[in-house]
Design a protein that fits this description.
- The chain contains five helices and seven strands; from the N terminus they run αααβββαββββα.
- It has 269 residues and is of the alpha+beta class.
- The chain has one domain.
- Strand 6 and strand 7 form a beta hairpin.
- The radius of gyration is 32 Å and the shape is elongated.
Length: 269
């Protein structure tokens, strides 16, 4: 009887992953072209995501700055409530004393990184986190250490100093909460986010007679916007829109629209 011959398949060849001689088949890797393609795709995705991440980070810093200003003005209100309606003092550095809302000169190296000047301020018992006094977007540093403060107080609040400032008779100063209430606390700013090139003491000078427009310059780190907190406790950003508004240089003109807008919410007659 004729028997049909059949091909005998080696057992090793029937087992996945094994070579014909019984060894494992090597796993095939990526080619150079495939690796370069993957790297190119990752680079493109990163390039697309980076602007979105940067925008999100900027918005986060903006929100945190606004929250800081709200917390600080809330402490301003609480201090007044605990002191028979008196507002925390606010003077130029040469006249500032232990009753000031905060101490220290950010242009003096030993002051600019000294947290003691924050803690000694009259508002610190109510806003007792030192981070609240610094804008998270503030790039200023002294010897590699971040400065401790970014905010300054309206020069017309906390003292009668501006009543004796040349050319400023007829405008009101505010040293009691009742005076601020009469003027309309929602329309008078208390604390401002000041530019890192301008900030020194905690007193933000606004000359209502236009003798020194933007002698103290507002911050521009939030897309050319700066934060203000108001006497009623709210805070908002003001956008610098006038192309004439430049960094502190004594070149701002009295008809600068950004300057005029700040004056409108600084004091009243």
């Amino acid at each position: 009887m004729f028997m049909q011959a059949t091909a005998r398949i080696p057992p090793a060849a029937t087992q996945p992953g094994r070579a014909a001689k019984g060894g494992f088949c090597p796993v095939q890797g990526f080619t150079l072209i495939e690796l370069l393609l993957v790297i190119a795709i990752v680079a493109i995705l990163a390039a697309l995501l980076m602007p979105a991440l940067a925008t999100a980070q900027a918005k986060g810093k903006r929100t945190a700055c606004l929250n800081n200003l709200k917390q600080c003005v809330l402490s301003f209100q609480m201090y007044s409530a605990d002191n028979d309606g008196k507002l925390a003092q606010n003077y130029p550095l040469k006249q500032a004393d232990s009753n000031s809302w905060v101490l220290g000169d950010m242009k003096v190296a030993s002051d600019s990184t000294n947290l003691t000047f924050i803690r000694r301020g009259k508002l610190f018992p109510y806003a007792s986190q030192v981070a609240l006094y610094r804008c998270p977007g503030d790039p200023s540093r002294t010897g590699g250490t971040p400065r401790v403060r970014s905010y300054s107080m309206n020069s017309w609040i906390g003292s009668r100093y501006m009543e004796t400032y040349p050319g400023h008779s007829g405008f009101r100063t505010f040293v009691r909460d009742s005076e601020l209430a009469t003027a309309g606390p929602a329309t008078i700013w208390v604390l401002a986010d000041e530019h890192e090139a301008s900030i020194d003491d905690a007193w933000f000078l606004v000359t209502m007679d236009d003798s020194q427009p933007f002698a103290s310059f507002p911050a521009t780190r939030h897309e050319r916007s700066y934060g203000l907190s108001f006497g009623d406790g709210h805070a908002e950003f003001y956008k610098l829109r006038d192309p004439k508004t430049q960094l502190p240089s004594n070149e701002t003109t009295r008809d600068d629209s950004d300057w005029l807008r700040l004056k409108q919410v600084t004091t009243i007659r």
